[in-house]
Amino acid sequence: MRYSMRSPRIEFAVGAFLLLALGSVLVLALASTNRQWGFGNDSYELKARFTSIGALRPNAPIKIAGVAVGKVADIQVDPVKYDSVVTLAMDVKFKDLPADTSAGIFTNGLLGESYIGLSPGGDPETLKPGDEIFMTQPAVDLIQMVGKYMFSGGGKPGGDTAAAEEAPPSDTPADTATTEEPK
User: CB of 73 within 8 A of CB of 27?
Assistant: First the structure.
């Protein structure tokens, strides 16, 4: 039987390489979770209904004044009203949001990521975990807006153009002639 003699240096180098590889995998795993380990309960949930959510996805940020304060936890469709019901996982630091807080769906730039922007109101009552935000603004569909602009005449007011052309302007002398009765 033949034994190979490995030097302790090679075994140490292989062991160090494995530890370095495991450390790299651990760092990547921690970085991919955005330091949210799932331990403890550092968030609470709110609900918001939207008629259209556009490209909003789960884990999209929730922002107040441009700063992330939570993320979208879940998106469902209400089978009765056919609205999108979005569950917001809010950071507990922001547990005293006024009851008249409004929510809107916006995008970063023209084609950027969608997010929910919250605008706190001034109501002394606060939203409790599980409450619903009633004042919501749906997402704006940019493609639909461009299509409407292109096919509606580029911002001209709609309506019957033939009737508008036939009607005299309102400041003509014919309009100012009144039906004053002689005295």
Answer: no
